């Protein structure tokens, strides 16, 4: 068999969902995607990042109808997942180095190791781009639910756009469905590089958030791939910021990004060890991203990071203080990639 779908296949929308030890939220995301109408044939590509919690087996069991997705959520969101999508679901399972053509509406790739957010999504992007029917690529967090009209709105926005711009979605809070988390992206601020999250509708955006990010095949090839030096956090900032800056120079008065569709994103409480790890990546990678923008951004981000570490310590948050301080130190030492053990 060839390594790509046949040339005669109609153009398709590829939704790329990265899973790492998170099968419960991934199943919920898949339920919402499957019941969502799409103007283009929809292929859902789940890349498992070497999970150790049995995610691959549980996703397969769910597809066979032997395991139900979690439906504990605010009543306003239950129509996203209920009633459950009819099972079995046509599921194609392949290894990370598989060369067979993708033909099923749902594809599960068994990765052997944790490549991080950047590496896992890059692997999924490369696989999708090898398929002749791949017209649009939609990077999605696995901890989101999509509105029923999300694909329709995204595809409509793309079809009407003469500039082939990246498209983000309006992000609402999973636990408080009416609360706005972000208007598809954020603006750059002073100090901590990213402005505090006081989300406002129709605000100017300097970059898109990767929780929902749609690009055409041509735009994906022009943008390239996520920076794998980061491993986790800030990849989406760098992926879209520099494009946006160049777009504004070439098209004064026009915005570089479009906003279409709605998703609900769950920001779950994490254990102290994971919070420390998140603080580490957030701090270190924002500094690398800031340095690529300007020395001034890097200096103010570093000073503000020092203040954040001290403030967390004074407020009795030692895990966050340690993670932030370690991120600052590793930035100075030039350490990139996964957090050293």
UniProtKB/TrEMBL annotation:
Keywords: Glycosyltransferase, Transferase. GO terms for molecular function: glycosyltransferase activity. SUPFAM superfamilies: Nucleotide-diphospho-sugar transferases. Belongs to the glycosyltransferase 2 family. This is Uncharacterized protein.
């Amino acid at each position: 068999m060839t390594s790509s779908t046949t040339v005669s296949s109609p153009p398709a929308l590829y939704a790329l969902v990265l899973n790492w030890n998170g099968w419960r939220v991934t199943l919920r995301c898949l339920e919402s995607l499957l019941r969502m109408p799409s103007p283009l044939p929809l292929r859902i590509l789940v890349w498992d990042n070497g999970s150790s919690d049995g995610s691959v087996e549980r996703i397969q069991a769910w597809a066979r109808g032997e395991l139900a997705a979690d439906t504990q959520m605010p009543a306003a969101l239950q129509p996203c997942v209920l009633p459950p999508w009819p099972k079995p679901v046509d599921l194609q399972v392949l290894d990370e180095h598989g060369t067979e053509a993708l033909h099923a509406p749902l594809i599960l790739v068994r990765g052997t190791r944790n490549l991080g957010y950047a590496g896992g999504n890059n692997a999924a992007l490369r696989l999708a781009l090898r398929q002749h029917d791949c017209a649009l690529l939609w990077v999605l967090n696995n901890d989101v639910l999509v509105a029923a009209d999300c694909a329709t709105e995204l595809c409509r926005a793309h079809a009407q756009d003469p500039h082939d711009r990246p498209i983000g979605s309006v992000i609402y809070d999973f636990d408080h469905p009416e609360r706005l988390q972000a208007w598809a992206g954020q603006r750059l601020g002073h100090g901590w590089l990213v402005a505090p999250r006081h989300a406002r509708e129709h605000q100017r955006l300097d970059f898109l958030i990767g929780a929902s990010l749609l690009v055409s095949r041509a735009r994906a090839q022009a943008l390239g791939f996520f920076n794998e030096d980061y491993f986790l956090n800030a990849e989406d900032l760098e992926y879209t910021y520099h494009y946006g800056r160049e777009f504004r120079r070439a098209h004064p008065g026009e915005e570089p990004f479009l906003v279409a569709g709605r998703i609900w994103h769950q920001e779950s409480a994490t254990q102290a060890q994971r919070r420390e790890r998140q603080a580490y990546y957030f701090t270190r990678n924002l500094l690398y991203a800031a340095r690529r923008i300007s020395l001034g951004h890097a200096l103010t981000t570093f000073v503000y990071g020092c203040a954040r570490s001290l403030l967390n310590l004074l407020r009795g948050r030692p895990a966050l203080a340690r993670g932030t301080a370690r991120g600052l130190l590793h930035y100075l030492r030039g350490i990139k990639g996964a957090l050293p053990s």
